[in-house]
Design goal:
The chain is of the alpha/beta class. The longest helix is centred in the middle third of the chain and has 19 residues, at 219-237. It is globular. The strands form 3 sheets. Strands 4, 13, 14, 15, 16, 17, 18, 19 and 20 form a 9-stranded mixed sheet that branches. It contains 14 helices and 20 strands. The chain has 2 domains: 5-33 and 302-429, Lyase, Ornithine Decarboxylase, Chain A, domain 1 (Beta Barrel); 34-299, Alanine racemase (TIM Barrel), CATH 3.20.20.10. Helix 2 (35-52) runs parallel beside helix 10 (265-283) and helix 6 packs across helix 7. The structure holds ligand LLP. Ligand LLP binds at residues 62, 64-65, 83, 113, 173, 175, 210, 213-214, 249-252, 293-297, 333, 337, 392-393. This is Diaminopimelate decarboxylase. InterPro entries: Ala_racemase/Decarboxylase_C, DAP_deCOOHase_LysA, De-COase2_N, Orn/DAP/Arg_de-COase, PLP-binding_barrel.
Length: 444
């Protein structure tokens, strides 16, 4: 986080709060969100679009990265909109906006995504009046039907297409190549645009494409601008649709370790803006409202996870394992994508790194390793180990595997910490459980 420093006790301090004090108060594992880092990333996106893009722009937060009231609240307060992909994300975002008293004016900044939205999700979206990013034929036809059933006069939609752009990232998080489950196949786009132009209830505002996540190259996003503007040209001139919005998705990578070298937010925005402006000039089109929907690059570096160090296993000449009190349930990324993280010991910030150890979680699974070969000071039980850059796709992908309660989260700013997610309790774990009556009676 931007506000991280080492204080006079040689402890890690974030947002003016000593991490060891936070841990004493809130326990571990603990997600610690630095409000300033999050706000700064929002501003970098916003300001960069203002500097490089001559038309209107809107940054929307891909809330799948971390959807909760407080994170949505900070992002809304920075003027960003939201990408939601389920009724749960929509409900979370709306509740945050309602509690802040800005729901009404924010509705046109909410975009509903998803490759298999249910009828009830679509009805929810229609009742709210947010924009819907349509992914496939079934959804188009369902919307037309539901819209007329509900007496909606006009449904604001964008069409998502597969741009056919390859990029080098983990295969699980690539979405732009043709063999992807997301969006309309480009070969179908002519049929789709014909259909849409014949349905008066569909108000097709724009086009969307997303090529993948944790991307370091610039070329794919540069190409994407051109692809989308070509479709915009066709949609306007051949199908008479009044396309005014182009959404280039998210995907900018972040620096998890020293060897990661992503472009800055400013460089990314510049690339996207110039490619869209350039393509518009070539095609003699007015500049569309340009939308970007970053998730990871807004929230990832704004959060760290603090754990308490527990047991140690030394296997001579092979490896030393240090176990912490969380693991794949609060951070499933290493086991899912072989992601690499950096770590420090919050209460030993000025001690030299004395050993190379593997940081293991506490789950009953050998693959539950958070970091392989981390270099840290000699770690003792009770030390506070902090894993950096855990804001994106950690809490949002957290589980209760092994019936571990999900961690608490705090947001820190200028020396003040606020609890934003209560730590789950054992009672929470049983909240949805029911034992059938006949089993209760069996031994009575
Ligand atoms: N827009 C769409 C349509 C997306 O599918 C995604 C991410 C984003 C925007 C935001 O992408 P970002 O800026 O965060 O890269 N769980 C994986 C990442 C999955 C990304 C899914 N879609 C991970 O932990 O790496």
């Amino acid at each position: 986080p931007l506000s991280a420093r080492v204080n006079s006790k040689n402890h890690l301090e974030i947002g003016g709060c000593d991490v060891t004090t936070l841990v004493a108060q809130y326990g571990t594992p603990l997600y610690i969100v630095d409000e300033m880092t999050l706000r700064t990333a929002c501003r970098q996106y916003r300001d960069s679009f203002k500097s490089y893009y001559s038309g209107e722009s809107q940054v929307i937060y891909a809330s799948k990265a971390w959807s909760c009231l407080a994170v949505c609240g900070v992002i809304a307060s920075e003027g960003l909109g939201f990408d939601v992909v389920s009724s749960g994300e929509l409900y979370t975002t709306l509740t945050a906006l309602e509690q802040m008293g800005i729901a009404e004016q924010s509705l046109n900044k909410i975009y509903f995504h998803g490759n298999n939205k249910s009828e009830s999700e679509l009805k929810y979206a229609l009742s709210i009046g947010c924009k819907i990013i349509v992914d496939n034929w079934l959804e188009l036809e369902t919307l037309v039907k539901l819209g007329s059933d509900l007496g909606v006069s006009s449904i604001p939609i964008l069409l998502r297409l597969t741009p056919g752009i390859e990029c080098h990232t983990h295969e699980y998080i690539r979405t732009g190549h043709l063999d992807s489950k997301f969006g309309f196949d480009p070969n179908q786009m002519d049929a789709v645009l014909t259909y849409v132009s014949q349905q008066p209830i569909l108000n097709c505002l724009g086009l969307h494409a997303h090529i993948g996540s944790q991307i370091f190259e610039r070329q794919p996003h540069q190409d994407l601008g051109g692809v989308l503007i070509e479709w915009m040209q066709k949609a306007i001139h051949k199908y008479n649709l009044s396309i005014t919005e182009i959404n280039v998705g998210g995907g900018l990578g972040i620096r998890y370790t020293e060897s990661d070298d992503p472009p800055s937010i400013e460089e990314w925005v510049k690339t996207v803006s110039l490619s869209v402006m350039n393509a518009c000039q070539i095609n003699n089109l007015p500049l569309p409202k340009l939308i970007a929907e970053p998730g990871r690059s807004l929230i990832a570096t704004a959060c760290v996870t603090a754990y308490t160090v527990g047991s140690r296993k030394e296997i001579p000449n092979i490896r030393t394992y240090i176990a912490v009190d969380g693991g794949m349930s609060d951070n499933p990324r290493p086991i899912t994508y072989q992601s690499v993280y950096r770590t420090v010991i919050a209460n030993k910030m000025s001690t030299f790194c004395q050993e190379t150890v593997t940081i293991a979680g506490k789950h009953c699974e050998s693959g539950d390793i958070l970091i392989k070969d981390a270099q840290i000071p000699l770690a003792r039980p009770g030390d506070i180990l902090v894993v950096m850059a855990t804001g994106a796709y950690n809490y949002s992908m957290a589980s209760n595997y092994n019936r571990l309660p999900r961690p608490a989260a705090v947001i820190v700013s200028e020396g003040e910490a606020n609890l934003i997610l209560h730590r789950e309790t054992n009672e929470d774990l049983l909240r949805q459980d029911r034992l059938p009556e006949r089993l209760k009676q069996e031994f009575r």
